Structure formats: structure tokens, C-alpha cells
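Handout, page 2. Input:
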Amino acid sequence: MTADDISHKDTLLTDTPFDAMMDDGDAFDNDEDTTDGQADGAVHSYTVQAADVGVRLDKLGSTVFDGFSRANIQKFIENGELLVNGAIVKPKYAVKAGDALILTAVLENHSEDLPEDIAIDVIYEDDEVIVINKPAGLVVHPGAGNRTGTLVNALLYHYPDVAHLPRAGLVHRIDKDTTGLLVVARTKSAQLDLIDQLKDKSVYRLYQCIALGAPHEIMRHARIDAPIGRHSMQRTKMAVKDTGKPAVTHIVSAKALHERYSLCDVQLETGRTHQIRVHLSHVGHPLIGDKVYGTSPRAGLTDEQRQAVANFPRQALHAHTLGFVHPVTGESMKFHAPLPDDFRALIDVFTD
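Output:
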């Protein structure tokens, strides 16, 4: 099976060539951060040489500390795990000759996670990458409170060769109740390459969602450029805030389902936690079913529509299209995942 064998069943998307979409969007990781990288708990050190002078710390770190991507290094810097002469500096710090870089990397690994026979929908696979269509309700990787029943546990069962990789080869994640496409690496070199593609914004990801608002209202916010950070009071939430990280979301199109709700194509330029949900809520167009950033059903609905909106059990968000450059062949690859049944049923309530 090849990427071209995947049929595209949804009509809202345009037929834009993949190369053009890459140029137009510079898409990054979603609604979720990139994976944390390699875990070994070791202390690494490096003394800056004359040839390194003036190079950004994050760039140099990804070169001299083997096995870590630039995204990993930036997180180490922000967390105070990579110090320069014993002090915390910015990722953009220009290194000086003789600077002592000390990296203490203590990251989560999955050496103790157990393989579990959990069914996964594999859209494509080869010796380097796997593309998976994740269902609603499946947590991507183990964490506090959910050490089992995750995609990582499933990967360890179906693909034992990924056990040596950080997070079993994951390079990005989507929320538990978001459906759709994820790419997983099967080798360390492929994982680092894909992480770098995400960092360089050369991965294309298109989502479909159902948002509050008419198309003309939503398209007033076709480009949402607003930094996102951890909510000051509720630490499980994210929020638009001046001190947050840069975040850009593009609303590509909106199609009326009802005078108050629209089916939207949304493309990510950056990849912050909950980015689509936070951004659309921030501009007054939250997603149906979003228990964290959403609102109650609006007036003007039939009883059936009101009940369907109120009872939809998750955010109406689906990672519909995924494009990346194959880390070995250099081929541009594009995949589509049709909307899941619950999403389609919700659309039918509005369109019947």
C-alpha cells in the first residue's frame, strides 16, 4: 500500500497539490507538543570551541549532544536542564569560546511499559514509519493515572522493534478525545528526522472541526496569531497570554451546517498544547463538545440538534490530513483519514 492508495472521501478539502500545501502552510505540530526525546538520566558536558562561537545554544546543543533534537534541547534549556557556566540562559544565547555546557537529561522513557494487544488502525507502514488513525478515547502515551491502555502500549505489542526508541517512536501527539492521524517512527534516525521536520514547520496537518458561528463570522479570524501558555490559575488548561509561546492557526475554510454552527478546515502553523481548541475559543468560536474551552448549545436549534450538541461526548476535532517528507526516501507523502462515525452523525443532525 502507498500513500496514493488512501482514498479521500471528504469533499470540503481542496485539491491543492501536496508541494503547494507545504509551501503555503509551513505546518507544525498540532494541538500537542513534540515528544520529549531520549531518556537516559546521564550528565553530558561540552566546552565551546572557537569554531562554535556565535552559534545559538539550542542549535549547538542538538549537534554536540548526540541523540537529542533541537526541540529536545530547547525544552532542556527552558527547564534548566541545560546550563551554560552553571546559569540558565535563553535558547537563542550566542555561545562564547570556553563556555561550559552541562546537560542533565532526565526524561520519561517507556522501558517499563508493557506491550498490550490493543487494536490500532494502521493507514500506512514501511521499515521507517507508521501512520496511524487514532480513535477517540485512546491516550497516546502513558502518564500519571494512565500507565496502560495507551497507543504506546499498543505499539510495543504490534511493533516490538520500537521498544528501544523514546516513547516507542512517537514524534507528536493528539489529545485523548481528538481523532485522526499520527506518524510514528520505527528507527532513531527517522524519529529525529521527523521531529526536526515538525520543528522546521515542514509537516502539513489539516484538521476538521465543528465550531460555533456562521462561516462569515469565523472567516474573519482566518489567521489567528496569539501566544499560548499554561493558564495562570487552572494548570490543566492552556490560555492565550502575552507570556506564552508563539502560536499561529489558519482557518482555511468554513461551511455552514446551521446558522449557528460551521464545519471548518483548520491548518496548524505551530504546535502548542490544545492550540486549535484554545484559539477558536479565544476568538469566540469554540468547538462543539469541548468540555474545557467550549460553551453550552445556542438558541435556535431543534430539540434533536440541541440534544446532539449537548450530548456529544468529546471535542468535535479530527486530524484529517497528514503530510511529511519520508525520512529515508525523501518522497513527499500525504494521507487522509475520513471523519469518524460519531462526527458524521453529528453533521447529519444538522443537514438532514
